[in-house]
Specification:
Elements: E1 14-18, E2 21-25, E3 29-35, E4 41-47, E5 49-50, H1 64-87, H2 101-117, E6 126-127, H3 130-134, H4 136-167, H5 176-198, H6 201-221, H7 228-231, H8 242-260, H9 271-300, H10 307-312, H11 314-323, H12 329-346, E7 355-359, H13 362-366
Parallel strand pairs: 5-6
Antiparallel strand pairs: 1-2, 2-3, 3-4, 4-7
Helix pairs in contact: 1-2, 1-4, 2-6, 2-8, 4-5, 4-9, 5-8, 6-12, 8-9, 8-11
Length: about 375
């Protein structure tokens, strides 16, 4: 496989680790390549499915951050479902083996990676397929949203409230210190979540495919041929990774909460009810926070970005030491194959028809 003739304005490429494979997307294309449990490779190619394609303002800077996250979860579950069907062997008794809880949680994380890596199409995509939207994809999107609200909004707020109960009435939602401590808990929960997840076998495999995804994208961005030898020297860490994105989200959230929430008066005389209402105020704030974080991360990946902005993203880069692992050559091959097919479809020169194509060997797929 060889890279396309890339000009100075390459389209943004995003990716996501799935079960025994990698999904790659360009602004218009969406490709999943998976090593089948029976041998060979399964590839699915299609247009990238847009959510709310008629609302053009949702593609504007700041607005697009939350939407691209939702699109990534929506299309990402479709990719995960496809990869589990072809990458997992059947259970004893002939039943289809289901995705484990650890792989599912790792998927939620890798979906965020895609949201940060990808760029929303400026009108070249197609509306999300209705069949997927009415079944598993919407259920997964709802579950993922609930998980993120519980883990990164509800839990740190509850822990901070418990600290306040021990400290005294001065440590309340109207104090700046309350929201600073809330931010510390968010960071701790994020790091702990990733570390525990990395200890499971399924997530460890996904994180190696995550590393393969990053190496493939680095190879493409360096205008190198898409080969394992060219990809091998590149780092598994990437500034547009979702790990960094989450750290920026936490930082922006702390700043916004400290700047705004201390001035919100108590909403109810009952302390418990007041805390619950404050959590509900934080939930809609997550949309502009995600939008600002998305723009900051894209800015930080550019050479023209000021050094102090790049420095703020360093903790997220460090955390990728956990969320990305060096891939095997076989895993790297799959990532490069997926990228090659996505680029070909982006150029209007697809190498196979839209839909699913099965190959008996990897060599046939790469030919």
């Amino acid at each position: 496989m060889s890279n396309q003739e890339a000009g100075p304005r390459q389209p943004y490429i995003g990716g996501q680790a799935v079960v025994e494979g990698v999904m790659m997307r360009s602004p218009k294309s969406f490709v999943v390549a998976v090593r089948r449990h029976v041998g060979g490779v399964a590839i699915r190619e299609q247009a990238w499915g847009q959510l709310l394609p008629g609302l053009k303002f949702m593609r504007w800077p700041v607005f697009r951050g939350a939407l691209v996250l939702a699109e990534s979860l929506h299309n990402g579950f479709s990719a995960l479902k496809f990869s589990s069907e072809h990458g997992l062997p059947p259970e004893e008794g002939g039943g289809k083996k289901s995705v484990s809880t650890s792989a599912l949680l790792a998927f939620l994380f890798s979906s965020i990676v895609l949201a940060a890596d990808g760029e929303p199409s400026a009108g070249g995509g197609t509306p999300a397929p209705k069949k997927e939207s009415s079944t598993g994809a919407d259920l997964m999107l709802g579950f993922a949203t609930l998980m993120m609200v519980l883990f990164f909004i509800g839990l740190p707020h509850a822990l901070t409230w418990l600290v306040g109960k021990a400290v005294g009435p001065s440590f309340d939602t109207t104090s700046f210190s309350f929201h600073l401590v809330d931010g510390v808990f968010r960071i701790g929960i994020l790091v702990g979540y990733v570390w525990v997840l990395s200890k499971t076998d399924d997530a460890a495999t996904l994180f190696r495919y995550h590393g393969a995804e990053h190496k493939a994208i680095w190879t493409y961005e360096a205008f190198k041929p898409l080969t394992v030898a060219e990809a091998r020297p590149f780092t598994t860490r990437h500034p547009r990774c979702g790990t960094s994105f989450l750290f920026i989200v936490v930082g922006v959230a702390v700043l916004m909460h400290v700047a705004v929430l201390p001035f919100v008066p108590r909403l109810h005389p009952n302390d418990f009810v007041n805390q619950v209402l404050m959590i509900f105020i934080k939930i809609p704030m997550a949309f502009p926070i995600a939008g600002i974080a998305y723009e900051l991360q894209r800015w930080s990946a550019k050479d023209s970005c000021p050094a102090f902005i790049k420095a703020l993203t360093k903790p997220g880069i460090w955390l990728q030491k956990i969320t990305t692992q060096p891939p095997t050559d076989a895993q790297q091959e799959v990532a490069l194959l997926s990228l090659d097919r996505a680029l070909a479809r982006e150029e209007g020169k697809p190498k196979s028809p839209e839909g699913v194509t099965l190959y008996e060997t990897f060599a046939q797929a790469a030919a």
